[in-house]
Specification:
heterodimer, A: 197 residues, mainly alpha, 72% helix, B: 704 residues, Phosphorylase Kinase, domain 1, Transferase(Phosphotransferase), domain 1, 3 domains, six-stranded antiparallel sheet, 26 helices
Chain lengths: 197, 704
């Protein structure tokens, strides 16, 4: 029983408007998405990049094939997956950094450190911190940033996923972008980034 | 900053963005804002200017490095196969061309990559593919001959040996030729469908049908032998919509395969105790392995239920076949785009009708193809065979049926003649003598002849059925017992059908053409399926649904034959019983006939010849019977039903025969028969005259 009915129950609660129910699904999706992401993160090939959308799609296919989850539609899934993709990538960046620091004890530039990503000029750990800060002020913007930046779907699809108008999505995106840009420009890379947030 | 401030900042920020930059500071000072709020807005505006493409391109990952290759060329596998060259890459390893040392025969060997060998599940998966392929023996399915484990370069490998195919994949072929001609597409589709139907009958669903998995070998007869490959994703299917490969799913003990958890996500490792159920997880990661490689390719051919993660059925394969057919005919798949959008489109978007892209495809065929792309599995053709057959019947049309009927009528001639003499001739005589009672009954007599033609053709199809089922040369002719069982339901149902179609036409619910189509197959349905009344009507409607063009052609031919036959019979009877209706029918002619008795005899005999010709020309009637059998097969709900009648599928016919040549042949034949008969009779009568007999007294019934 029980996982199956448990998940069905969670989804039911969610569809009835209980947003917190979504969080309960995270471990399940995380588990799948994480394994898939691992394959990509373990042996990077500098010549080819891949959109995270592909990974999320793969995780989706995997979960729906297992039939534990009757996803109402893929948008539900993406809403969860965006949050998880962010955590996976942040964890990865953090580990990489810790590994480099603790192991070889030589200083590396951030961009080299984060070579698993493109564009390399964004410090994911800083972005994560600032996103957390922004979440305290305006949580909806976080959803937009996560969906657009971490799963790579278009703003139109983001709007559809969150059930808001495209105009609202665009406005929120612009505002959040300006806010995050300022915050990132203001902060210096700090030593305590290795600590769990 | 509090929520209220933030809302204010946000609305002013957006308002300012809409105003030109030079007016912004002015507007801002007008608003008399709190100091901190104003600073915040100014700094946000500034960073909005500077941000540029910040965050605009989403995060990307670097792709995994490709597998390190181990050169296997030149090695001898399991001391049996000498590996020659690499042919291609599959989901779990490479495919090599090899030489079987025992027979010196070329074979293709799929070797599972050593890195997957460490995982029991991958090996099981591979074994499953071998077993799925091993369960299938069909000329259109690649033949798997061997499977085993061995050591190669000190590494454990598993291998699967298949026949080596010369030729090219359908994918390559489509790339080269873009659009393929309809007759070739139908030939290829038929072969794919035969293979897939065979798999379905063994409860195996392919799940990964795509042009790359379909191999074309030249058959040296202007066509291709088609082979379906790669049952690597195949699932064992249970008709009760449950997947059956429990041996594989249950054997999984540790589902967390291969990928170690090397990130230190403490926060989640706790929650991972909410584990996914174990059994199919590993199995699925195996599929995903294939999928990871094919995520760009295969979603093009995936059915909506696969995209949505619902259970797959044989109809999922039919959807994929539909996409392939669409691509062969138009040069492009109905949907394209990124994986993300593809999955969405398969689930939601309606494909562009194929007739818009290729207007030359006959409408029944394009409709049939579009029906395979239905979002709901139930709305697609019920099985692969019926889809192939539906395409073929519609493409070949009625002439092919007539041609095939010729073969059958040759084989069945004695039984057919017997049946005709016993049932057709008396029936016709009854209906033809009806106007003798009263001239006003003549429309009934006409309908009766139409009806008896249909009924007799249905009786003939019983004979055809016997021929198909029996191995003996001699087919039992029909008996009166048969007639007794068939005639009652036929009459009642036909009456009901006439009433039904009259009502529907008067209320504009159905066209005349559609009603006629139903009548074409009604007697066949009553006799062969033992249905009657409403059930028979519904079944007949269902059967002609996809074949309305052919049924129209049959109707025209039937009508034409009936009218022609009716006129002939009429003249015949009239002349035999001349004068009785001379005022009603062709009086002038008969007056003359009265004067010259021998002329009327001549005419009656002249009319007898074509009458006999029509009574004993069985092709048309058998063609209707064949049409019924094919329509039946193409609408079968179960594989057994379809295969039961499959004997007709293999009959090769010449596509170039047109309906016109068939009809004109028929006409020409009757004209020649008539001419010869006339000549002979004229000769006979002149001989009688020479012998001194008065031809004027030569009458069957004396007038007055």
């Amino acid at each position: 029983m029980d996982e199956m009915s448990q998940i069905t129950e969670i989804l039911l609660k969610w569809s009835q408007g209980n947003k917190a129910a979504l969080e309960e699904l995270i471990p399940l999706v995380y588990d799948n998405l994480h394994k898939i992401a691992q394959r990509y993160l373990k042996h990077e090939n500098p010549n080819h990049t891949i959109q995270t959308t592909a990974l999320v799609n793969e995780a989706y296919l995997k979960l729906v094939e297992q039939k534990y989850v009757q996803w109402q539609n893929r948008q539900h899934f993406f809403a969860i997956a965006a949050k998880i993709m962010r955590r996976i990538l942040i964890n990865y960046a953090r580990d990489k950094k810790a590994e480099k620091r603790g192991g070889a004890r030589y200083k590396v530039s951030l961009s080299e450190d984060l070579k698993a990503y493109e564009p390399p000029n964004i410090d994911l750990l800083l972005l994560d911190q600032d996103l957390t800060k922004l979440a305290e002020i305006d949580a909806r913007k976080i959803d937009i940033i996560e969906l657009r930046f971490f799963t790579g779907i278009s703003l139109e699809e983001v709007a559809e996923t969150l059930g808001i108008s495209l105009a609202t999505a665009k406005r929120d995106w612009r505002m959040a972008k300006a806010w995050l840009y300022r915050e990132i420009m203001q902060s210096e890379p700090k030593g305590d980034l290795d600590e769990p947030a | 900053m509090n929520q209220h401030d933030w809302k204010e900042i946000e609305s002013i920020f957006h308002k300012l963005l809409e105003t030109p930059p030079q007016e912004r500071s002015e507007l801002l000072s007008k608003l008399s804002l709190d100091r901190t709020v104003r600073n915040e807005i100014e700094s946000l505006l500034k960073s909005d200017q500077e941000a540029g493409s910040f965050l605009d391109s989403p995060v990307k990952l670097l792709e995994p490095r490709p597998e390190e290759d181990i050169a296997l060329e030149g090695e001898v596998l399991d001391s049996k196969y000498s590996i020659e060259t690499r042919l291609g890459q599959g989901g779990m390893g490479y495919v090599y061309l090899a030489l079987h040392l025992g027979t010196r025969r070329k074979v293709a060997i799929k070797i599972i990559s050593p890195k997957f060998m460490t995982n029991l599940e991958f090996v099981k998966r591979f074994q499953q593919e071998a077993q799925a392929a091993g369960a299938l023996r069909h000329p259109n399915i690649v033949n798997v001959t061997d499977f085993g484990f061995t050591q190669l370069k000190n590494r454990e490998v598993a291998y699967l040996v298949m026949e080596y195919l010369n030729g090219l994949s359908l994918g390559t072929f489509i790339k080269r030729h873009q659009k393929l001609p309809l007759d070739l597409v139908i030939d290829i589709t038929e072969q794919i469908c035969l293979a897939v139907a065979e798999a379905h009958s063994k409860a195996i669903i392919h799940r990964d049908l795509k042009p790359e998995n379909i191999w074309l070998e030249s058959n040296r007869r202007e066509g291709f032998n088609v082979k379906v490959l790669d049952f690597g994703l195949a699932k064992i299917y249970d008709p009760e919509k449950k997947l059956l490969n429990e041996d594989i799913e249950n054997s999984t003990e540790n589902d967390y395969v291969e990928i170690e958890d090397d990130s230190s996500s403490e926060e989640f490792s706790q929650q991972q105790t909410l584990k996914l159920s174990k059994d199919s997880e590993a199995n699925n990661s195996l599929q995903l392995l294939t999928r990871a490689g094919m995520i760009v390719g295969t979603p093009l051919y995936m059915s909506p239920e696969q995209c949505a993660g619902q259970s797959v059925s044989p109809q999922s394969d039919i959807y994929s076949i539909g996409i392939i057919v669409y691509q062969m005919l138009t040069g492009e798949t109905p949907f394209s785009g990124s994986t993300h959008s593809l999955l969405q489109k398969h689930i939601q978007e309606l494909p562009t009708d194929i007739s818009e892209k290729s207007p030359n495809i006959p409408k029944p065929i394009s409709q049939l193809i579009m029906s395979t792309l239905a979002k709901k599995p139930e709305a697609r053709p019920s099985n692969a065979l019926s889809f192939a057959l539906g395409m073929k019947i519609n493409f070949e049309g009625f002439p092919a049926l007539l041609k095939q009927a010729q073969n059958f009528s040759t084989a069945l001639r004695p039984a057919l003649v017997y049946t005709s003499l016993k049932f057709h001739v008396p029936l016709l005589l009854i209906f033809l003598s009806l106007p003798l009672i009263h001239p006003a009954i003549f429309p009934i007599s006409f309908l009766g002849i139409f009806f008896s033609n249909a009924f007799i053709s249905a009786l003939y199809s019983v004979l055809v059925n016997r021929l198909i089922k029996t191995t003996e040369v001699k087919v039992e002719p029909l008996t009166f017992q048969d007639l007794k069982t068939y005639i009652r339901p036929t009459i009642f149902t036909t009456l009901l059908a006439i009433k039904d179609s009259l009502i529907k036409q008067l209320t504009f619910k159905r066209s005349l053409a559609r009603s006629c189509s139903v009548f074409t197959l009604l007697p066949e349905v009553i006799i062969s399926e033992k249905l009657s009344k409403d059930a028979a009507l519904r079944r007949a409607e269902e059967l002609v649904k996809n074949f309305y063009l052919i049924s129209q052609q049959i109707n025209i031919q039937n009508l034409w034959l009936s009218i022609f036959g009716f006129l002939i019979y009429l003249y015949l009877i009239q002349t035999l019983f001349w004068g009785r209706y001379s005022s009603f029918y062709l009086s002038t002619f008969l007056e003359k006939a009265q004067k010259y008795g021998f002329v009327s005899v001549l005419y009656s005999l002249v009319f007898i010849t074509p009458t006999l010709f029509f009574l004993f020309n069985f092709n048309m009637f058998i063609a209707v019977g064949l049409f019924y059998r094919k329509a039946f097969q193409a609408n079968s709900h179960s594989m057994e039903q379809a295969l039961d009648n499959a004997v007709l599928l293999s009959t090769k016919t010449d596509y170039r025969v047109t309906l016109w040549t068939q009809t004109s042949k028929l006409l020409l034949k009757s004209v020649i028969f008539t001419a010869i008969a006339t000549l002979l009779l004229a000769l006979a009568i002149s001989l009688l005259g020479l012998m001194g007999l008065s031809t004027g007294d030569f009458r069957f019934i004396k007038y007055k």
